[in-house]
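=== RUN LOG ===
request id: a7f3
mode: sequence -> structure
chains: 1
length: 262
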Amino acid sequence: MIALRSVLFNTLFYMNLIGQMIIMTPAYFLLPRKKSYGIAKNWARSNHWLFAKIVGTTFEVEGLENIPKGAYIFAPKHQSFWDAYAPLPWLDDPLYILKRELTWIPLFGLYLKKQRMVPVDRGARGKAMAAMMARTKAEMSTGRQLIIYPEGTRRAPGAAPEYKYGIARLYRDLQVPVVPVVMHPGLFWPRRTTMRYPGHFKVRILPAIQPGMEPDAFLAHLIDVMETASDRLLVETVEANPSLPLPPTVVTRLAELKARTA
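=== RESULT ===
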C-alpha cells in the first residue's frame, strides 16, 4: 500500500507542478513580482496537502516567532526535495542563490528570473563571485530573505555533518541575522528513491544568530546549535513514528547518542 501511495503521490506531484506552471503562467507574468510569488507559495501549500492526503504525512512548524522582520539568512537542514520548496509559504519574499543552469530550463527558468533569483556558475571565481555577492546584497537591501542550506547539498538523516564555509562568508558580507532550522523530512521523503512514508514530523526554527561574530566563530556556533537541536529532534521524530523504516545513518546516529548518555 505504501508503494502504491508513493507512486500516486509522485505522479500527482509532477502533474501539479506542470499543470500549475502552465495554467497560472499568464497571471504569474502579468502580476507584480511580489504578488506573483503567491502562486509559487500556493503551489507549495498544495504539495503539503497532497503529501498529507495521499501519503499520510503531516508536519508542524515550531518557532515561527524566531523569524525576524526584514532581511535575514534562512539556514535549514537539507535532506529532501521537500525542504527545497516547503519554506516558501513561511517567508515574506524569499530568495535563492542557484545554479545558473536552472535558469535555462524552458518556462521554469523564466519563473526564476521573474523572482530575481541569483544564478551562479559554481566553477566561477573572482569577478563572477563578486558579481553574485553584489546582486545578492542588492536584493537583500530591499528586505528579502536568503534561503541557504549550510551543508550545500542533501544529506541523509543522521549522517555526519558537512557544513560549507560559504555560509560564514555570507554571514560576514551580508551582515544580517542567520536563522538556523532543523527538521528530518528525509525520513519521510528520502533522497534517491521514489518511496514516500506516512507519519508526522516537526520543523524547528531556532533563535536567530545576530550579525557581528567572526566568521570562524560563527560557523562553529552554527554547527553546534544546529547539530545539538537536530540530534534532539531526530530522537523525538523516531520515537513519534515507531513504524518508520530507518536508514543505516539514523540507526548508527541513534546508537551513538544512546552510548553518549549511557
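=== NOTES ===
Residues 58-261 form a domain with the Glycerol-3-phosphate (1)-acyltransferase fold (CATH 3.40.1130.10).
The chain has a mean pLDDT of 93.
=== END ===
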